[in-house]
């Protein structure tokens, strides 16, 4: 009889204990699972590119570094495109885009910006044997230009609208920077615009490009690259900044970035 009563009491106590566990305790238990953070990536310079069909560049590298220094968040790569990234972020298909710039069309979206990660630049290129009058890189906006659809360029005051570019400039829009370079090699346009990182990587693979392609003395634009984080993301900007600060403190971030430039300044 006593044994049965003790068992009943213990069972009742267990029920009461479970029902009175503070919400914070159960939340802490759930927090043991890392929060998924979907990182959007599209082809741009050494930020994100494919090598023998395999994703490569700073985005996969940085995702690996971020996952290696903490276990609260799980950063996963999700492919998008230069034009689709805005809608993907707005609709929650991705949580953030690494290595962006606030001037690249984000003003109408619910986003926040991280601290600066690295700096890059876009450069002018031309085929060396194309005839010119005077300085071949003077008055860029008066020449035929090939550049990437969805990218933001200094010569056009960072307006990436295709209709605007074609109305006010002699512009051909390519899908990616490889198409831009190929277009310049073929002579499709007088001037091409690519990122310094992309061109450095191409030179490392095809050194002969240095004999046939000229680079302008001044860049189209210099970009401080940050991360764009959705206002609805579970990743606070402050947390992300702390992680980046940790990678910058010992030089890990800068070493990874410079390595992608194959020894050239970027």
Describe the structure.
With 266 residues, the chain is α/β, with parallel strands linked by helices. 36% of the residues lie in helices and 24% in strands. It has ten helices and twelve strands. The strands form two sheets. Strands 1, 4, 5, 6, 7, 8, 9, 10, 11 and 12 form a ten-stranded mixed beta sheet that branches. Strand 8 (145-148), helix 5 (162-168) and strand 9 form a beta-alpha-beta unit. The longest helix is centred in the first third of the chain and has 18 residues, at 2-19.
Indicate the radius of gyration in whole angstroms. 25 Å
Count of extended strands: 12
* Structural class assignment: alpha/beta
How would you sum up the major sheet?
10 strands, mixed
Share in helix:
25-40%
Q: Beta-strand level of the residues, as a percent range?
A: 15-25%
What number is the mean pLDDT?
88
| Coarse shape | globular
State the end-to-end distance: 82 Å
Order of helices and strands, N to C? HHEEEHEHEEEEHEHEHHEEHH
Enumerate how many helices there are, as a single number.
Answer: 10
Low-confidence stretches: 1-21
């Amino acid at each position: 009889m006593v044994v049965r009563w003790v068992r009943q009491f213990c069972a009742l106590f267990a029920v009461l204990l479970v029902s009175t566990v503070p919400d914070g305790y159960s939340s802490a238990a759930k927090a043991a699972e890392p929060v998924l953070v979907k990182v959007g990536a599209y082809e741009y310079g050494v930020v994100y590119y494919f090598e023998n069909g395999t994703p490569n560049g700073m985005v996969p590298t940085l995702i690996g570094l971020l996952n290696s220094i903490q276990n609260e968040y799980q950063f996963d790569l999700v492919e998008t495109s230069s034009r689709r990234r805005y809608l993907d972020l707005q609709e929650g298909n991705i949580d953030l885009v690494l290595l962006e710039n606030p001037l690249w069309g984000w003003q109408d979206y619910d986003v926040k910006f991280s601290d600066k990660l690295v700096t890059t630049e876009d450069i002018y290129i031309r085929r060396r044997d194309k005839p010119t009058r005077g300085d071949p890189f003077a008055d860029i906006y008066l020449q035929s230009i090939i550049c990437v659809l969805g990218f933001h360029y200094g010569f056009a005051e960072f307006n990436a609208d295709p209709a605007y570019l074609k109305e006010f400039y002699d512009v051909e829009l390519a899908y990616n920077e490889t198409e831009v370079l190929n277009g310049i090699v073929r002579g499709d346009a007088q001037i091409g615009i690519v990122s310094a990182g992309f061109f450095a990587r191409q030179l490392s693979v095809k050194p002969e490009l240095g004999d046939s392609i000229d680079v302008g003395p001044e860049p189209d634009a210099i970009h401080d690259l940050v991360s764009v984080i959705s206002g609805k993301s579970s990743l606070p900007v402050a947390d992300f900044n702390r992680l980046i600060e940790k990678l910058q403190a010992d030089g890990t971030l800068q070493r990874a970035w410079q390595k992608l430039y194959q020894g050239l300044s970027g």
